[in-house]
Amino acid sequence: MVNREDVAGLVAALFTVNNGMTRAMKQRPKAGELRLLQAVALHEGSRPSELAEAMGVDRSLVTRQLRDLEDEGKVAVRPDPSDGRAFVAELTEQGRQQIAELTEFGMRRYESFLEGWEADEVHELTRLLWKFEQSKAAVIEREQQEQQRPERGRRQR
C-alpha cells in the first residue's frame, strides 16, 4: 500500500524532472518552436485559439509565435474560411523539415540521458509513467463529473 512518504518521494521526483524540462525549454527556444510546429501539424488548419487550447497556453503567445514562424517560412497563415477576421495555420515544407530536424535532435538528447540504462528499465519507466497519466486522467474526469452533478436537496430550475 502506498503511504504519504511514498507519495512525497514521487512528487519530489516529478517536480524535479518537470522543472528541468521547463528550464531546458526556456534555455532552448527551439523546444518551444518544436512544440508549436507539432501542434500545427496535429491540428492543421486550426486557429491560434484552438492551438493555444490544445497546448494549454495563452492565445496571444501562440499568435506571436505563429507570426514569427510565418516570417521564417515554417508556417503559412491564411484567412479562416468560416470567419474572415480570424486566420488558420498550416505547415510549410520548411516547417515539416524543421520538425524532423528538431525531433532528431531531441531523440539524440534523450538517448544520451538513457546511456547506461537497460532496455527493461526504460520499458518499465515508460509503462509506469503511462499508468500514472491514466490514473491522473481518471481522477480529473471523476472530479469534473462531480462538479457537474446538482447538489443534493436542491432542485434544478
Keywords:
2 strands, flat, mainly alpha, 2 domains, 6 helices, 157 residues, 70% helix, two-stranded antiparallel ribbon, Arc Repressor Mutant, subunit A, single chain
Q: Mind sketching the topology for me?
A:
Elements: H1 4-27, H2 29-42, H3 48-55, H4 59-71, E1 75-80, E2 83-91, H5 93-113, H6 119-148
Antiparallel strand pairs: 1-2
Helix pairs in contact: 1-2, 2-5, 3-4
How much of the sequence lies in strands comes to 5-15%
Gross geometry: flat
How many domains comprise the coordinates? Answer: 2
At the fold tier of CATH, the topology name of the largest domain is Arc Repressor Mutant, subunit A
DSSP helix fraction: over 70%
Number of helices: 6
The CATH architecture category of the largest domain equals Orthogonal Bundle
Helix and strand element order: HHHHEEHH
Number of strands: 2
Q: Report Rg.
A: 21 Å
Widest sheet: strand ordering: 1-2
Describe this structure in words.
This protein has 157 residues and is mostly helical. It folds into two domains: 4-113, Orthogonal Bundle (Arc Repressor Mutant, subunit A), CATH 1.10.10; 118-148. It has helices at 4-27, 29-42, 48-55, 59-71, 93-113, 119-148; strands at residues 75-80, 83-91. The chain has a two-stranded antiparallel sheet. It is flat and about 55 Å long. The chain starts with a helix and ends in a 9-residue tail after the last helix. 12% of the residues are buried. The model has no long low-confidence stretch (mean pLDDT 90).
